[in-house]
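note to self — DONT lose this again. spent like an hour looking for the file last time. sequence + predicted structure for the chain T wanted, 484 res
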Amino acid sequence: MIRDERLIFEKSVAGRIGFSLPENDVPEVDLAKTFGEGVLRDSEPEIPEVSEVDVIRHYTNLSKRNYGVDSGFYPLGSCTMKYNPKINEDIAAMDGFSRMHPLQNPLSAQGSLEILYRMDKLLSEILGMERVTLQPAAGAQGEMTGLMIIKAYHISRNDEKRVKIIVPDSSHGTNPASAALAGFEVVHIPSDEKGCVDIASLETILDDTVAGLMLTNPNTLGLFEEDILKISEMVHKCGGLLYYDGANMNAIMGIARPGDMGFDIAHVNLNKTFSTPHGGGGPGSGPIGVVKELVPFLPVPIIEKRDDYYVFDYDKPLSIGKVKSFYGNFSVVLKAFCYIMMMGSEGLKSASQAAVLNANYIRKKLEDVYDIPYNRICMHEFVLSAQRQAKNGVTALDIAKNLLDEGYHPPTIYFPLIVHEALMIEPTETESPETLDAFINTMRRLAGQAETDPEKLKNAPKTTYVSRLDEVKAARTPVLRWRP
């Protein structure tokens, strides 16, 4: 089959159209006269002139080039690319929700406000927190919001010398980035031989300049921090707060709660853990929950129930203010609400248990052909190392590129940084044993080829629209738009 690789702009033919607008039945407005000359463009927009069939084929072909969880297995570690029930989309598309305007009178939006209020209560219970704000648009913004609350809390107590945020060497990259953006000094602590926080190193860092510790549990190695209660006690004893990075909540929902572990602030990615679309640029949602002492610092408004009505409460003098326009990404919250209501407490627990089972199943099936630096019972994900294959010149990148030819989205590679030639695999609970077995067989076959025919693995991918790119150039000098 010959593919037409031309861009939609290159298919443009002057005068060709794919639509017919109805005759104008409202008075015309002279925009320049009404709003000034500055509102008008200097030239016509560069819009391709194509027929309707060209437009349809254009977007259909683009959709075929995209790989998503609806296309196939997507074991992207630390990202929980689980299947999203389509009923969530149907409910979010209902007129009563999709036609809601953020500026309309709250009295005419009581149904939507009730969902937000109930979501606060549900997530508070799941996280073990007092209250939750649904404003943050993603996990990273949730981190930023939590760090702003940590700073506001210490300042309110006239304790402005607390300028340090501690992060483990296995943390998500957003942790130190968010801490630095919030104006904190970032202090890294190493992992111990078991892949968890090195308690001895932590003890040497803790003093009265520490504002808090950011921790993922289970961590990015897919391992549960067994000493979390001791860590919590140590941080609180020095006057710091504990921040929970909830990116890996898919392993523990319904089983363990950050609040019970001693965390003071916890974020959760609705666009990962609670089965709403993830990736592709968003939208996301990263609510954060806080313990009772930190509720006054939450972003405004807080939704309260008064006299059978749901209202916005802005009367929070210690609040850090707004972090997102209106009240966050409502449609994402709505889809997550649907998922929680359908699953119930036992369903969420079962999802976590299945995610952990799937990850350990793959780990055991691959441990004899790949190195696993921290090879013990994992949670929802685990980290392989291709160092054994690298001895024959086959890298983690080569394995990933070959998986593309095999029809799989590759796992996360080269993260966490403390594992050389890392392949971070997260199967999620939504994949069947047959899918897992097929993936396992593929990974084992690639490991075998790395021993017998390593050069063959260096030339993948061969089935994609483009093969290997100059990744450094693509990152440093990206071409983000077409120009004639």
